[in-house]
Amino acid sequence: MYGQPPHNSGSRRRSPPKPREQHRRFHQNSDHIHSSQSQNYYFPQNSYFPNQSSNFGYIPFHQNPGFQFSSRSSYGEVVERVDRAVIKVRRDLIEAGENVSAWKVSQAALVMLKAYSWDSLGVRMQQVPSLFQLIFTDGKINAFIHCFVAVQRITTLYDLEVAILRNEGVEQFEELDLGPLVKHPLIIHYFSISPDVSEVFRITSVEIISFLAEYMDDDKRRRKKSPGTTEKLGVRIQSLGFVA
Q1: CA-based Rg of the chain, rounded to a whole angstrom?
Q2: pLDDT digits (tens, 9 = 90+) for 184-235
Q3: Is the dihedral of CA 195, 199, 203, 204 positive or negative?
Q4: For residue 244, what are the CA distances in angstroms to 84, 106, 126, 160, 165?
Q5: CA–CA separation, 53 and 37 (whole Å)
Q6: DSSP 193
Q7: What is the DSSP string of 11-53?
Q8: Residue-wise pLDDT tens digits, 158-167
Q9: 242 near 189, Cβ under 8 Å?
Q10: Residue 106 and residue 118: Cα distance in Å, rounded?
């Protein structure tokens, strides 16, 4: 009949899948997708508690049994406990007259808390308020010392101390709670300070230049009266790198 497709008695139309079979296929596919996503595309919801994932190269940490926590409130209690330990360690170093550095305080705090690493605490150093402030101050003072010494051909420890105090807006270096300036490792390195030095000798680079000028004038007068060579004067100047 016109308008109708020809009937082929030899062909049979394919029947749709049974509902139960179709449901089973969908369920299997969804399980496969869920398993694939959970293995390859898992993102932790809380950044404070990273989970181990081989795709992101994360190195898992092992918590100290004494510092386990299960909620944000207990995490805050751990941070407060660590913060109190950091404050005590810093105060003890200052009272002992020793240099205070972020590294020294962080390691001593671990000993006080009986933890073998910061990962074992489940807390990052930058998340502890007092330690974060110390890291910032310690780093700023170290950078300032490096730069100051690098640009000064002739300088003194007293000049450096005055510059630090002016830059930090304090009257004494001890107000920074970093211990004595003469005990600072960079000061010992750059100025060859003896361990028995307890205070900064007050002499400026201007005075040093004046003394050098006087020495040069006196040296000229000595040369006029000298027997011929400076070696006979019995004076040896090895370096002017350290003047204090």
Answers
A1: 36
A2: 999 999 988 888 888 888 888 888 778 777 776 665 555 655 545 444 434 3
A3: positive
A4: 39, 33, 38, 12, 19
A5: 12
A6: -
A7: --PPPPPPHHHHHHHHHHHHHHHHHHHHHHS---S-TTSPPP-
A8: 999 999 999 9
A9: no
A10: 9
